């Protein structure tokens, strides 16, 4: 049986419309449309054409999906700037990658979910998360993707370059999923991670709106820049050099720190405006000079290495009906042990910074 959802997944992952796929494969668009709705059988020969063009094995299309996101609120960081095709590409890629996690977890024990209960107040939610993650009042949360994996959140790195989109999040049943798109700007990634965590805790089952985006940003600010610590550390009338030093310590953008300085009344409105004009003149509104490296999540690669060995791409591809190239791209978005930061001040992170997966397999041990 051919599953129409699989055709749609592969097509939207390739950023293609039905009309574009029809033109490239010489298959009538009406047939493709009906096939995606499971009301038309393309047959083996035409499916083979579609599979070859979209670069998925045939078995991908004849295996039922186990993690469709349809009908669930999917929150995107920078959603207002996203084209619909880009949002669909990210969503479908997330569906396919989270399936691999679900399959591996049938044979491995992962960390238990330790997030605080859903909240409505951003400040209270941020404080609860910092306690859950064992972050002391003056601790930065630079390793947030890894800390969240230890707290049982499924954090995925998707092999899609972040342009005007950064991340998305949703609940899949009782599983919080946070997907990060590829960027080398660690300050942007850190804020996006915190912003999406805010959606998970504050906006479960609530559709996207400007109000909830503002609420998620408020949560991110309190999580990443605890006010009591910033009151002590931010000087009066801070300069761009001061902001650069604070950025290296806290891992957030200079732009976010300028906003915090205004909030704390360390600068006047005129200074606030002047600082942003300086950033614009230096070309730093889109990319700041002070560099913070991005931190990749670890969990998927850790599970794949336990399941398939030190070179897991072929096994990961075979079990999920992917190409080996796609498996390698997904794995590359997840950290090796040696890639991870050492955060000795954070007891929730183990010394080797590997997500705590029980090597004792569940029943049904893989051979």
Secondary-structure topology with pairs:
Layout: H1 4-13, H2 18-25, H3 29-36, H4 43-54, H5 58-61, E1 75-76, H6 84-105, H7 122-132, H8 144-150, E2 154-161, E3 167-172, E4 175-182, H9 186-202, H10 210-224, H11 227-233, H12 240-250, H13 254-263, H14 269-281, H15 299-308, H16 313-320, H17 324-332
Parallel strand pairs: 2-4
Antiparallel strand pairs: 1-3, 3-4
Helix pairs in contact: 1-3, 1-6, 6-15, 7-10, 9-10, 13-14, 16-17
Structural commentary:
This protein is an alpha+beta fold and 367 residues long. It has 2 domains: 62 residues, lambda repressor-like DNA-binding domains (434 Repressor (Amino-terminal Domain), Orthogonal Bundle); 299 residues, no CATH class. It is 50% helix and 7% strand. The chain contains 17 helices and 4 strands. A 4-stranded mixed β-sheet has the order 1-3-4-2, sandwiched between helices. The radius of gyration is 22 Å and the shape is elongated. The two termini are 28 Å apart.
Distance between the termini: 28 Å
**Low-pLDDT residue intervals, each spanning 5 or more residues:** 344-356, 363-367
Determine the number of helices (DSSP H or I, runs of at least 4 residues): 17
User: Largest sheet at a glance?
Assistant: 4 strands, mixed
Q: Structural class, from helix and strand content?
A: alpha+beta
Mean pLDDT: 90
Strand content: 5-15%
Q: Largest sheet, order of strands side by side?
A: 1-3-4-2
Shape: elongated
What gyration radius follows from the Cα positions, in whole Å? 22 Å
Elements, N to C (H/E) = HHHHHEHHHEEEHHHHHHHHH
Helix content: 40-55%
Count of DSSP strands: 4
Domain count: the total is: 2
Family: Belongs to the short-chain fatty acyl-CoA assimilation regulator (ScfR) family.
Pfam families: HTH_3 (PF01381), Peptidase_M78 (PF06114)
Organism: Mycolicibacterium obuense
InterPro entries: Cro/C1-type_HTH, IrrE_HExxH, Lambda_DNA-bd_dom_sf, Rad_response_metalloprotease
């Amino acid at each position: 049986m051919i599953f129409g959802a699989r055709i749609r997944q592969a097509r939207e992952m390739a950023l293609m419309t039905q009309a574009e796929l029809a033109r490239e494969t010489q298959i009538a668009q009406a047939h493709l449309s009906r096939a995606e709705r499971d009301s038309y059988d393309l047959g083996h020969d035409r499916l083979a054409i579609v599979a070859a063009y979209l670069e998925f094995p045939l078995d991908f299309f004849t295996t039922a999906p186990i993690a469709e996101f349809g009908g669930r609120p999917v929150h995107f960081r920078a959603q207002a700037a996203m084209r619909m095709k880009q949002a669909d590409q990210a969503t479908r890629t997330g569906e396919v990658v989270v399936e691999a996690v679900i399959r591996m977890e049938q044979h491995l024990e992962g960390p238990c979910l330790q997030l605080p209960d859903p909240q409505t107040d951003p400040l209270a939610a941020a404080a609860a998360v910092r306690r859950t993650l064992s972050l002391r009042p003056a601790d930065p949360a630079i390793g947030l993707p890894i800390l969240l994996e230890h707290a049982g959140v499924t954090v995925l790195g998707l092999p899609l370059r972040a342009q005007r989109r950064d991340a998305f999040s949703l609940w899949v049943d009782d599983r919080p999923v946070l997907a990060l798109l590829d960027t080398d700007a660690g300050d942007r990634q850190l804020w996006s991670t915190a912003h999406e965590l805010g959606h998970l805790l504050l906006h479960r089952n609530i559709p996207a709106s400007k109000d909830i985006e503002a609420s998620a940003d408020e949560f991110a600010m309190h999580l990443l820049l605890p006010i009591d610590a910033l009151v002590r550390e931010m000087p009066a009338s801070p300069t761009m050099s001061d902001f650069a030093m604070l950025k290296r310590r806290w891992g957030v953008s200079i732009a976010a720190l300028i906003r915090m300085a205004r909030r704390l009344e360390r600068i006047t409105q005129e200074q606030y405006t002047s600082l942003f004009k300086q950033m614009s003149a230096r070309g730093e509104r889109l990319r700041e000079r002070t560099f913070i490296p991005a931190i990749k999540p670890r969990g998927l690669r850790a599970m794949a290495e336990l399941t398939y060995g030190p070179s897991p791409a072929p096994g990961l591809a075979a079990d999920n009906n992917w190409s080996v190239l796609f498996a390698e791209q997904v794995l590359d978005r997840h950290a090796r042990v040696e890639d991870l930061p050492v955060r000795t001040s954070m007891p929730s992170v183990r010394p080797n910074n590997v997500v705590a997966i029980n090597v004792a397999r569940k029943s049904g041990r893989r051979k």
